[in-house]
Amino acid sequence: MSGALVRPALRQLPASMCLRMPPAAGQPGLRLTTAVTPQRYHRNNSSRRSPSGGWASMPLAPGASILLAVALCSVSADSPAEAGWWPFSKRQPTSPFSNTIPRQAKKQRAKAEVQMRKYLAKMRMPVQELMAGLRKGEVSREEYDKRMAVFNDEVELATHRIIFGVSDPPDARRRYEAEHGNCRYTPEAIRLVSALSPLVEIGAGRGHWQRGLFEAGATVISFDQWATPPSSGNERGTTAGMPQIGRVLPGDEHALRLHRDKTLLLVYPPPGDMALRCLHEYRGDTLVYVGEGRGGVNASDEFFDGLDAEWDVENILDLDPFPQCFERLFLLRRRQRTTVGASSQQDA
């Protein structure tokens, strides 16, 4: 399961919309969630409701894996002009972060959203019946946990098949994340980033990139909050039962205040304002961003607006992403600020 795509959907849910069942000994509690996720549009810093005028809402089965579709499928645009590729659009995109996702891939994601809605509707009834059986005492807790584990596995594999188009092997995404994290680095990427040492990484997960950089001789200090609830394959969840790949310390963007002289590394940040908060806290002049561009599953429009306004892209590397993913590596340098005093002296 893709932890990075699941993470934002979980964080956006109000507590009032989550039903928690009491956990068994040594087991996490059941979380039956009704997700309310607006359609996102990446052009011009806009967020709109769905074309029908309402929010994209659906009852979800337990387990974080089914939220993957919500996070991934909520990034489609409803018109060619909004997507930025329509030839008669008045505003042609000039940002290196625009149009990084092929048009056909956007169509595929929209199609996957429809398929996921149908699948979730199909799964809703048996899950609700199982929960009702537990409440009424018709199903023992042991039987409940066993059957719920089966449901979660089914949902996770179905999600991978629908979203990523992967069915052979059915757990390919899970294996990918276990070995590489959310985004696989390449030898060229490691060479480029290690040359920018020392580095500070925020949102490091289990430390896959840190390990690769360390082996290349780089100095990297990595932080992560591990704020996402645990789930199978979720590298940003709790580390219980999930051994660290690198040495990752607890921390968030506030750690940047102590590491202003280091290059900032952001690998596959979640949708939302996490990456933007890092951008606001960082005082250095070199940034490495790894992820999808505008309209993708990483960061926010405000984050990319900030990059366009104050940073120059020095280099872009293609990576080797998982199917239906479009991560790239962007090396950015902060633009030199021009002050009034400096301009006056130059004129003199």
Low-confidence stretches: 1-92, 228-241, 340-344
Question: Kindly state the mean pLDDT as a whole number?
Answer: 76
The DSSP helix count reads 11
Computed structural class: alpha/beta
Describe the strand arrangement of the main beta sheet, using strand numbers: 6-5-4-7-8-10-9
Largest β sheet strand count, sense and barrel closure:
7 strands, mixed
H/E order of the elements? Answer: HEEEHHHHHHEHEEEHEHEEH
| Residue share in β-strands | 5-15%
Provide the gyration radius in Å.
21 Å
Shape descriptor reads globular
Number of domains: 2
Percentage of residues assigned to helices: 25-40%
| N-to-C span | 62 Å
Q: How many extended strands? A: 10
Write the layout of secondary structure elements.
Layout: H1 3-12, E1 18-20, E2 31-37, E3 56-59, H2 67-73, H3 80-83, H4 103-136, H5 141-164, H6 172-180, H7 187-194, E4 199-202, H8 208-215, E5 220-224, E6 248-250, E7 263-267, H9 274-281, E8 286-291, H10 301-310, E9 311-318, E10 328-334, H11 340-347
Parallel strand pairs: 4-5, 4-7, 5-6, 7-8
Antiparallel strand pairs: 1-2, 2-3, 8-10, 9-10
Helix pairs in contact: 1-2, 2-4, 4-5, 7-8
